[in-house]
Each structure stands twice: as structure tokens, then as C-alpha cells.
Amino acid sequence: MSHLPRTLAPTALCLSLFASVFSGMSASAQGHGPTPKRGTDGLSPVAFEIANTGEIALSCSVKLAHWYSLELGQAAHGVSLSAMLWSNPETGEVFMLNPIGDQMPVERLWCGVSGRSWDTRFEMPLLRTAGRAEPDLRFDCAADPLGAVPEEASATLCTAR
User: Fold this and answer.
1) I want to staple 121 with a disulfide (CB 3.0 to 4.6 A). Which of 34, 91, 110, 128 is the partner?
2) Phi, psi values for residue 154, rounded to 5°
3) Are 85 and 48 in contact (CB under 8 A)?
4) What is the pTM of this model?
5) What share of the chain is helix, strand, coil (3-state, %, to 5)?
């Protein structure tokens, strides 16, 4: 029995070292990665606006990451929907700002029939050209075919203004 504490001491020391090493690793592994840039310094504003010229309500969304999409809103017949994007003229990147001003990279931007926007989408062309700011994105959009009910619409057609 008197030998038991001596044999457990090295084991306890090893477990203690293991725990401290792994707790330090998990703390750094739980970091959020690089902090996104914040604010609009060096960025140019890019107006995004669609006017719904059709009869069926449209909704527009933006894909901010491979796993995250955000609906920008809906537009009924005769209603316009708008949002502000930002462009880095140096790199060609396009961003939306979150509520605290973090620059969130825009991967895709589309509009389609409300409730089926992805299936009936018109994808807004983002140039992303290094050395120049992204131009404003202003479109007239309508579900296709004209006069269809929402369930029959097969696409959304948009023309630049």
C-alpha cells in the first residue's frame, strides 16, 4: 500500500501535463480565425436595386459564405428592393457589412420567385475586377413566363438599367 502513492505520482504528473497541453491547444483551436476587416475605408459603395416589373413577388438573397445565405428582402409587383454593397477597387472583392461593420465577402447575389428564389434565380453579374470598383447593380426583374402563377414560373429575367 505504501508503494501505491509513488507509482501514482508519475501518472498523475503525466495526466496533469497532458491536460494542460490539450487545454491550451483547445483554447487556441477555438479561436475564430482571422478577424474580418471592419468599416468602409478604402471601399467604394455599390448600389444594388431591383424593380419588380412582373406580377409575381420576388425575393433577393446574397451568399456570404459557402454555408451562409441571407435574404435581402421581397418585392411585390411595382416595388423596388435595394441594398448597399461595397467594393474594394484594388482587389475586386465585393462585400456586405454586417450590423457591426465587418466586411462579409459576397460570393453570389440572386433574385427569384419568392419561396423558390434559388430554383428560379437570376444571378446578378459581379465583375470582381482588380483595379476598378464594382459598378452599381440596377435591374428591372420579372418572373418568367409573364402572367404565370408562382408555382408555374420557371425563371426570373432581369435587364440592367
Assistant:
1) 110
2) -110, -15
3) yes
4) 0.76
5) 20, 40, 40
